[in-house]
Amino acid sequence: MRKVSMATRRELIEAVGARYRSADRASKGKVLDEFVAITGFHRKHAMRLLRAEPLIRETTRPERRIYNEAVRGALLVLWEASDRLCGKRLRPLIPILIEAMEGHGHLDLDPAIKARLLQMSPATIDRILRIAKGNNQKVRRRGVAGSELRRSVPIRTFSDWGDPAPGYMEADLVSHSGPVAKGSWAWTLTLTDIATGWTECAPLLVREQTLLVEVLKELRKLMPFPLLGFDSDNDSVFINETVRDYCAATEIAFTRCRPYRKNDQAWVEQKNGSVVRRLVGYRRFEGLEAAGLLAELYAAARLFVNFFQPSFKLAEKRRDGAKVHKRYHAPATPFQRLMDDPRTNEQTRERLRDLAGRLDPVRLLRDIRTAQQKLVVLADAVVLANPNETSPPPLGAFLLSLKALWQNGEARPTAVDKAPRKRERRRPDPLLQVTDQLKAWFEEEPWRTGRELLEKLQAQQPDIYPDGLLRTIQRRLKGWRTEHARALVFSHSSGQASATPVDAETILTAM
Predict the structure, then answer these.
(1) Nearest one of 226, 220, 221, 199 to 337, comparing CA atoms
(2) Helix (H) or strand (E) holding 326
(3) What SS3 state is found at 350?
(4) Are residues 209 and 183 in the same domain?
(5) Using one digit for the tens of pLDDT, what is the confidence trace for 211-231?
(6) Cβ pair 419, 381 in contact under 8 A
(7) Are 235 and 207 in contact (CB under 8 A)?
(8) What is the pLDDT of residue 511?
(9) Does residue 346 lie in a domain region?
(10) H-helix or E-strand containing 268?
(11) I want to staple 197 with a disulfide (CB 3.0 to 4.6 A). Which of 16, 295, 327, 334 is the partner?
(12) What's the CA angle centered on 267, arms 96 and 168, to 5 degrees?
């Protein structure tokens, strides 16, 4: 019976076999006895294993790729044009995206490359894009309201929705206070349709119920369906007489979720992360200019998200003991779900079909990136040397950049953290008055050590420069020697000292 694992057996054969084959007859017997005792092999079988020359195994498999660099490059462009979706959501979008981009002259794919792209599975898409991908994630919020008023608004739970017609929407607010919740800042109102996933976003200058109702009126004009239901959390900006009376007057079913049960609003909570935070990030935005830029961003994003961003929708959920089994519908865009819904009238279908034919996903993505860049410049208080840095790039140049954009890391400006300020000198320079003198001594006698220079300085100006400055002088001396060596090297190679001398102040600030 074998006493060791297969892996250990192979290692023993490789280690002992060479010694066994080169040993004399007496030594072979000892090696064999030891090997049999360890492995438990039959003696004859052990002899055959040790006599055999080691097999050289093939370390690499023959090339079996069916997706060449041209296909991978085209997939990168489509992935960037979709705003970096995962493979499962990108797969159903590829034919839509190819058709839209070819229709606007952004793509001219070879039929063979197009066929390969259309046959890719989600797992293959993720595998090809693995090198180009990156991750991110962050925080949340809470709210309260008056008890009498709350009792007048019925509760609707996650399981109460059933299969509502398009127009029943969940609502939530996203804060843009940044790391400090102090003062006044902008908010985003998010509305998500239960049936189709259609999402509308709008900025609020302040968190106030009258302003919220005015923004809601404007959003209703943009929706492709009438607003039938308005489901919010228990935040006081939603649960108040102003919003309740407005919903009653316009025959909108007003409901709320249970307190501290965020899963009751799972649809809009998911969009808070995948749409709002993904687009805007976590910086602080305040004032009219920030609200205007957010409105500019959402104007392009609402079309991009609803027409070119497939999402999953839960089809069935069942519990088997402690395990929950979930089944999802195939990924589809809100536009596709709205077109497929039998309750959508023909007039709405015609209007949406006409709009979809005129939309250019690359142009929308460029407008989104430009608005994001403007928001970052505003939030981080960046002073631009060239104001055109935040203007939209030419569409052709933007399209060309999509293929190699992944090499630069995160593409969304709002997802890149603000660069920390470089730490500067925090104490006055103790050698500021004598730096020129020390450098002159060094140039006269470059072989002098830091201690010798300090002793010379102490002899000239006693009781002013203590021994504790030795390390500072040594660092400064090191910088001067580096300068000197660089100047010598470059003067021989180019006929002149092309190395730029380093100013003493530069060396000081580096310490």
Answers:
(1) 199
(2) strand 323-328
(3) helix
(4) yes
(5) 999 999 999 999 999 999 999
(6) no
(7) no
(8) 36
(9) yes
(10) helix 266-271
(11) 334
(12) 90
Residues 172 and 112 in one domain: no
182 and 73 together in one domain: no
Residue 269 in contact with residue 262, Cβ under 8 Å? yes
In a domain, 377, yes or no: yes
Structure token digits, residue 290: 């920030």
Which pLDDT tens digit goes with each residue over 422-475?
Answer: 777 778 888 888 889 888 998 888 888 989 999 988 888 888 889 888 999 999
Cα angle: 322, vertex 311, 372; to 5 degrees: 120
Do 255 and 238 form a contact (C-beta atoms < 8 A)? no
Q: Which residues pair with 255 in a beta bridge?
A: 231
Among 332, 350, 352, CA closest to 95: 332
| Measured torsion, CA atoms of residues 240, 233, 328, 219, in degrees rounded to the nearest 10 | 40
Per-residue confidence (pLDDT) for residue 496, from 0 to 100: 45
203, 219 contact by CB (below 8 A): no
The helix (H) or strand (E) run that includes residue 11 is helix 6-22
User: What is the secondary structure of 279-322 as a DSSP string?
Assistant: HHTT-B--SHHHHHHHHHHHHHHHHHHHHH--B--EEEEEEETT
Radius of gyration of the chain (CA): 35
171: three-class secondary structure by DSSP:
strand
Distance CA 485, CA 501 (A): 11
DSSP 386: S
- Beta strands 168-175 and 187-193, pairing class: antiparallel
pLDDT reported for residue 135: 47
Cα 20 to Cα 52: distance, rounded to the nearest angstrom:
10
Same domain, 369 and 397: yes
What is the C-alpha to C-alpha distance for residues 309 and 92, in angstroms, rounded to an integer? 10
For residue 80, give every residue at least 6 positions away whose Cβ sits within 8 Å of its Cβ, in sequence order, or none.
365, 402, 403, 405, 406, 411
Q: Are residues 114 and 192 in the same domain?
A: no
Neighbours of 431 (CB within 10 A): 17
CA angle 420, 423, 425 (to 5 degrees): 165
| Token pair 């302003």 in the structure block, residue | 211
Residues 373 and 239 occupy one common structural domain: yes
pLDDT at residue 145 above 90?
Answer: no
Domain count, the chain: 4
Range of the domain at 270: 168-315+324-415
Is pLDDT of 2 > 70?
no
Give Cβ neighbours of residue 186 (< 8 Å, ≥ 6 apart). Answer: 176, 203, 204, 205, 285, 286, 287, 290, 291, 294
Burial degree of 417 (CB within 10 A; 0-12, 13-18, 19+): exposed
The domain that holds 290 is classified in CATH as 3.30.420.10
Provide the token pair at 153. Answer: 């608004």
Cα 273 to Cα 201: distance, rounded to the nearest angstrom: 12
